[in-house]
Amino acid sequence: MRADFQGWVSARQSHFEEVLSELLPRAEAAPQRLHEAMRYAVLDGGKRVRPLLAFAAGELAGADAARVDIAAAAVEMIHAYSLVHDDMPCMDNDVLRRGKPTCHVQYDEATALLVGDSLQTLAFQLLAEHRLNDDARRQLEMIKLLAMASGSRGMAGGQAIDLASVGKALSLPELEFMHIHKTGALIRAAVLLGAHCGSVSPIQLDKLDRFGKLIGLAFQVVDDVLDCEADTATLGKTAGKDADNGKPTYVSLLGIQDARDMAQRLHREALESLAGFGDSAQRLRELADFIVLRKF
To answer: N or C: which end of the chain has fewer CB within 10 A?
Structure first.
């Protein structure tokens, strides 16, 4: 990873942690336990891949950085809520996330459920109460975009397919369909929301949408490989859980090497989708490299 990119990532991550801390309710505000648990679920964890994609797309679009902060926070709160709910006993029943006890283990199941509910609504509150684009219609489009990426035609729908697929053998198109929704939809939304904070043409948005779709799929393929090859300490979550639970993965379908090859192909196609942007897309290219190589 190039030193200037590493510096950019570190600076963005540090700044974004402060942004999240300011936007989340204070722990001492009533109801204290819920607000404390919300902060526990969001702060001090993860590489912030989705916000970094939003920042990179915002830079490409010449967006005001403060506007991208809000859009990135909204995406990250949706992501954090999904992790809290996914880890609960009624879903994946996991006890470790980002190297610490999952929210329902640290607090309790009822609190974890409310944490997810509260983070989801806070995400849309942020998009509604801050001016993110001078065109009100564009801002409404941003709210719609995140809603679709989060709901039954996006992340939640993908999770429903995932839960229904345990113990089943899916075809490659079926597996891709699931992950385009479960993982890819929010990654695509992060890219597009960052771009919407600035000025981009419809053709440029189409290219960025294709980039987000491809790199979102690549992210999941690499996740499946790491779930087989990395240990729990490295992952920050329980290694091998998908295989143990009989979940269909790219590795179970294709094998390790073919899954790696697929990630590399998606990576190449994602970079090709950025052709014509020049230096303005450099951060997106570097993030694509990180997502596939995972060399942080």
So the answer is: C
3-state secondary structure the chain: CCHHHHHHHHHHHHHHHHHHHHHCCCCCCCCHHHHHHHHHHHCCCCCCHHHHHHHHHHHHCCCCHHHHHHHHHHHHHHHHHHHHHHCCCCCCCCCEECCEECHHHHCCHHHHHHHHHHHHHHHHHHHHHCCCCCCHHHHHHHHHHHHHHHCCCCHHHHHHHHHHCCCCCCCHHHHHHHHHHHHHHHHHHHHHHHHHCCCCCHHHHHHHHHHHHHHHHHHHHHHHHHHHHCCHHHHCCCCCHHHHCCCCCHHHHHCHHHHHHHHHHHHHHHHHCCCCCHHHHHHHHHHHHHHHHCCC
Residue 244 has which token pair? 């143990």
What distance in Å separates the CA atoms of residue 144 and residue 258, rounded to the nearest whole number? 36
63, 198 Cβ separation under 8 angstroms: yes
Pick the closest to residue 40 from 11, 69, 83 (CA basis).
Answer: 83
For residue 37, which of 108, 122, 126 has the smallest C-alpha distance?
108
Contact 249, 241 (CB under 8 A): no
* Cα–Cα dist 128/143, whole Å: 7
231, amino acid identity? D
**Axis crossing angle, helix 32-42 with helix 65-86, rounded to the nearest 10:** 100
Cα atoms in the 13 Å half-sphere on the side-chain side of 268: 5
Contact between 48 and 16 (Cβ < 8 Å): yes
> How many angstroms separate the first and last alpha carbons of the chain?
8
Contact 158, 174 (CB under 8 A): no
Summarised one tens digit per residue, pLDDT across range 51-106 is: 999 999 999 999 999 999 999 999 999 999 999 999 999 999 999 998 899 999 99
